[in-house]
Amino acid sequence: MSHEQILKLDPLIHVPARLAILSILIMVETANFTFLKESIGTTDGNLSTHLTKLETNGFITIKKAFKGKKPQTTCAITNKGRTAFTRYLDQLEQIIRTKKK
Amino acid sequence: MNNNQIQQEISIIKKMIEKTKRETAESGHFFIAIGIFSAAATFAIGMLEFYNLHNLVLPTLIIAVVACGLIGYLTVTSKEKKEKLTSYPKTIFYNMMLACGIPGLMVMFLYPLLKVYPWNLIPALVPLIMGIIVFSAGVIFELRYVKWCSLVWWAGALIMALTKSQFRFLIMIAIIIFGWVLPGFILNKQYKNRINE
After folding, report:
1. Rounded distance, CA A39 to CA B15, Å?
2. φ, ψ for residue A2 (rounded to 5)?
3. Angle between the A33-40 and B3-24 helix axes, to the nearest 10 degrees?
4. Cystine design at B175: which of A4, A97, B41, B156 (Cβ 3.0–4.6 Å)?
5. C-alpha A9, offset from chain centre
């Protein structure tokens, strides 16, 4: 893989936890904090940091609400996040193709 | 970034997709619960007609439809409380159910009450809408066997239109079992397979 191609990869997604978050959110309308935490296998604090980073950059939206008496945090991917993730996959595919050659 | 890192990234994506698929699979309980209740209600209405208790048919039909709606609502909301994800297929499916439910009520109650057609045409018309629901469910949940079950409803609609026998409620029960309960079990099988993966 060329240095140029690595540079092209979005640094915001190029982190395992954030890649995992977006991989889940791209498939669903919303996912709650617990599901993300269980699936990724991370701590509350760590997940919060990654989610905030994605939210600050407009990749996801975070909503805090109550489901009955329990507080619940739900996340959803935005159009910007969807586009960025798709571009990231395209770039990854391109890198694999280049490597094969 | 070397080959291992690329493989690692791909495996993360795959793993998350699989986990999400498992979590969003439709259990089919909605179909099974409504189907069994509808079959029982149809049997009850058939029996009322058989024993010439015609004045009780409409109230029973109204109670059955309201109860079906309640069962559906409770099944969906109780699931939603436990669910950690909301998926597009389920949202589309429940909205499609609502979109078909309203014309269903018009066909079942409003038009006969307005004397657009006689009450005995209902069993020939409602299956047309039920077929659309089952077919759409097959498309939404990507299950071709469920799609085929819609044919049971459409063929059933034709049979119900041509049959005059007082025992035609038994045909309707068979249609409900093969056209509604069976898709529920197919969905449930897929759900269990995904959970056990």
Report:
1. 9
2. -75, 160
3. 140
4. B156
5. 14
Distance from chain centroid for Cα B61: 18
Please, which contacts does A69-74 make with residues 24 or more away whose CB atoms are closer than 8 Å? Answer: A72/A32, A72/A33, A73/A32, A73/A33, A74/A30, A74/A31, A74/A32, A74/A33
Closest of A49, A57, A60 to residue A23, by C-alpha: A60
| B61: nearest Cα among B141, B172, B147 | B172
Helix (H, G, I), strand (E, B) or coil at B180: helix
**What pTM value is reported for the model?**
0.80
Contacts of B84 in chain A (CB under 8 A): 31-32, 34-35, 38
> What does the angle CA B51 – CA B54 – CA B60 come to, to the nearest 5 degrees?
100
ipTM over 0.85? The verdict is no
* Residue indicated by tokens 């571009």: A87
Tens of pLDDT, residues B97-122:
999 999 999 999 999 999 999 988 99
> How far, in Å, CA of A73 to CA of A49, rounded?
14
**Pair of tokens at residue A51:** 């989610």
| pLDDT classification of A7: cutoffs 50, 70, 90 | low
Extents of the domains making up chain B: 20-196
> Taking CB atoms and an 8 Å limit, are A6 and B1 in contact across chains?
yes
A positions 26-65 inside 8 Å of B (CB): 27-32, 34-35, 38-40
Burial degree of B90 (CB within 10 A; 0-12, 13-18, 19+):
buried
Residue B73 burial (10 A CB sphere; 0-12, 13-18, 19+): exposed
Distance CA B54, CA A90 (A): 66
* Residue A33 · residue A47 · CB < 8 Å: yes
The SS3 assignment for B53 reads coil
